[in-house]
Specification:
single chain; about 55% helix
Length: about 250
Amino acid sequence: MNGGPSGFHNAPVTKIFVIASSLLTILIGVRGRSSKLGLSYQDIVGKLHIWRLFASVFAFSSTPELMFGLYLLYYFRVFERQIGSNKYSVFILFSVIVSSLFEIVALAFLKDPSLNLLASGPYGLIFSSFVPFYYDIPVSTRFRIFGINFSDKSFVYIAGLQLLLSSWKRSILPGVCGVLAGALYRLNLFGIRKMKFPEFLTSFFSRLSWPTVGGSPPSASSGNVIGSIPSYRGKLCSCRSYYFYYGAI
């Protein structure tokens, strides 16, 4: 299972997010500040450093988390291709803000000493993306391993589970908050699915995105933004739920 053709064709926002996450993780890791990232209860009752809040949205605290996180971000570019970069940018902003608010409320309510520092990285965006992935991405193949049923979606779930459990409670809490943010987006809280940024912002990100290596990518279908997503054995109608989930593009 894949998210369409390889590369970031029709996914400039995802491309910028992946590059920013990679560079910040490496940069902060080299400077030895990875252990200082992530929200904590002390940040809530004390002084919250803005640079930590910003960096913790993008930068992972370890190489394994970075690998699994980038794989999931790269796969979920399928949603940007479906709803367009403008609405996907709104989805990113909503997921990050709402999941961060949930984290702050949870830290203030739990006051758990073992949650002295939450895992850093775009957990909110990644795990909010699992909501549409669960409901709207169809299964294309099923198979059995040692008598256990699997599908092509299982590999994405396994990567997500690995990331969720990477730092135990420190990563589980941000993951759960991300799922809650994705559920609120699906419920169309405040009509969020119809909101858009001014076109000049998305045009800026499109121009900022580096050209695709290897020549011109295949053009998407003019009648369907999902044009580059695989047909899942010819049953294109199985992807209709995308349209009703995100609203008319």
